[in-house]
Fold:
Amino acid sequence: MLFEIENLKKIYGNNSVKTPALQGVSFKISSGEFVSIMGPSGSGKSTLMHIMCFLDRPTYGQCKFEDKSIDDFNDDELARVRNKKMGFVFQSYNLLSRTNVFDNVKLPLIYTGFSKEKENELVEQALKSVGIFHRAFHFPNQLSGGEQQKTAIARAIVNHPSVIFADEPTGNLDSKSGQQIMDIFQKLNDQGHTIILVTHEKYTAEMAKRIISLKDGKILSDELVSLRHYAKDGLIK
Amino acid sequence: MKLSNSFQTALVGLKTNKTRSFLTILGIVIGISSVILMMSLGDGAQGLILKQIMSMGPNNVYVEPGSFDLEGADMTQAMMEGMDIKTLTLDDMDAIEKDPLVESVAPMVLNVARVVYKNNDKKVTVFGTSPAYAEITGGRTILGSNFNDFDVQSMAKVAVLGYKINEDFFQNENPIGKTIRIKDVNFKVIGVMEEQGSQMFLNVDDYVYIPITTVQKFLLGINHIQSSAVKIVSQDKIDEAMESIRLILRERHNIYNPEGDLSKDDFKVVSAKESADMMNIVTGILTMLLSSVAAIALLVGGIGIMNIMLVSVVERTREIGLRKAVGARKKDILYQFLIEAIVLTGLGGIIGILLGIVFAYLAAIVLSMALGTQWSFVVSLKSIVLAFGVAAGIGIVFGIYPARKAAELSPIEALRYE
Ligand SMILES: Nc1ncnc2c1ncn2[C@@H]1O[C@H](COP(=O)(O)OP(=O)(O)OP(=O)(O)O)[C@@H](O)[C@H]1O
Ligand SMILES: [Mg+2]
Structure:
């Protein structure tokens, strides 16, 4: 099993004000799945994603990745796992502002230990696959919102991670750009990458194979998508 | 990640944040260069004073009238006081000269008098002494010759001009054989001294030298002397000679002083070295003052560095969060920031040291010109090490400290940092 989430709880705030963001969430995800996590704003989607991709530790409960619990790793080992096996697109891109697109996308690679040539090859590949190669030497403040989002996606996939997390990757895009992005994810999924997509749009969520709905930090429903949308159909139209 | 990678990441980081890098380097440069400059000034002042004292020769001792004032045997002050104290005479000096430890004696009387040549009229320091004075201080004539022992015995009305006095009065004219009037007495110019700069803070190029007996009789009408330079046969005999001179003078002045209590004497015998030691106390205070200025400069520079480092913390914390998220270990982050800090302080350090040395050098030139003396240019290793140490310390501590704190946060906390 790729992910085993068991009774996961996350409570923010340590002393006075406590915000329970997750209140006992359990599910499993196997390799090759394409899962949407849906829910209204503040329902705990981002929080859940951050714990699943080892960026944050839960307050309570289990989060197992490839049968190993997050508690079994120290911080450096978590960094290693994230670097090798996970890619993520943050809700607020988190690009380095004074660094160009190319170097932003390269960032994960400098902690991987590839040769220079290999690094450049991978970056080029990633940039091309999201269609932002022509902006490689622009700086983030010279890009549109969609281009920034694509840059963030290129960074997430540059390492060929087995799991890709994306937090509202189409949130700022027009429907055409959104479809392009979703097409990228569907292709990556076809190539065997596991995709975990956070969104609050029903239509986008239905491009995945399975939808987990959250509300107030609890799972409302967890079901397979019966009528899956394909982004490339939308693009042909 | 390999160390060479950290190095590269750090360099890229520095290039990316040019303004921050520049300001940090500037802070370090200001701190270091001002410390080096200030400490160089302190050392230069000390060197100057020592040289002034030693310019009279390390083999020399001075005999002054008046009792030993333990508070401070300042020679120039003693010379001034000496004008009114009449205890020492030329006969005393003759007696001292007979001591086998004494090589030569140059008694002195200083007097400011009006000197006239044609329509040129100036107040000038007239220095009465014996031929031994030039011998003791190593002063030579560039024109004509010095007066001799016979001139002293015969109270000859002859004058030897200091280098600048000759320039002032005679310009291109040959002064030898010309007559000048000093206090309405006619003197024949027989020589001109070479340029000597200042000695004991006195500008000897502005003096007119005439035989001491002539000054005593014709210009001042006195029998005593104001001071006397005594050259001892060798440096290791100085203490012995000083004691011997004291015994001679006590006997001549009928002072019963078997315990050798200096305050009972009506004269004092001071070595150049003792004077130097006194002066060192003064320059020590000066150096301390300059060092405090330097310390303030260093503090200002340090606060500058601190500010820049701390202001960029928010931005840098997010950067650290992102780097950790995509796979940087704590170690990678620390190396990156350590190398950044080292490169900045290293660069700032080198520039600061060079600039400090250049400033110190320029200051030495300016001061030499302003003071009309050779201000020595000294930059001590101590000042470089101290300045660099403190600036580098501040730079590295404040470069690493925020990074260390940020690296302790979870990536998400760091990314959300505000
Ligand atoms: N660092 C934090 N400190 C305190 N509370 C937090 C923190 N992060 C999130 N929360 C709270 O936890 C809850 C869940 O937040 P989360 O970001 O997971 O929501 P979300 O489902 O991603 O919402 P959105 O769709 O708006 O992105 C919210 O009520 C939020 O206020
Ligand atoms: Mg969110």
Observations:
- The CA atoms of residues 90 and 167 of chain A lie 5 Å apart.
- The interface with chain B takes residues 50, 55-57, 75-76, 79-80, 82-84, 88, 90, 94, 96-99, 103, 107-108, 110-113, 155 of chain A (CB under 8 Å).
- Chain A has eight helices and ten strands.
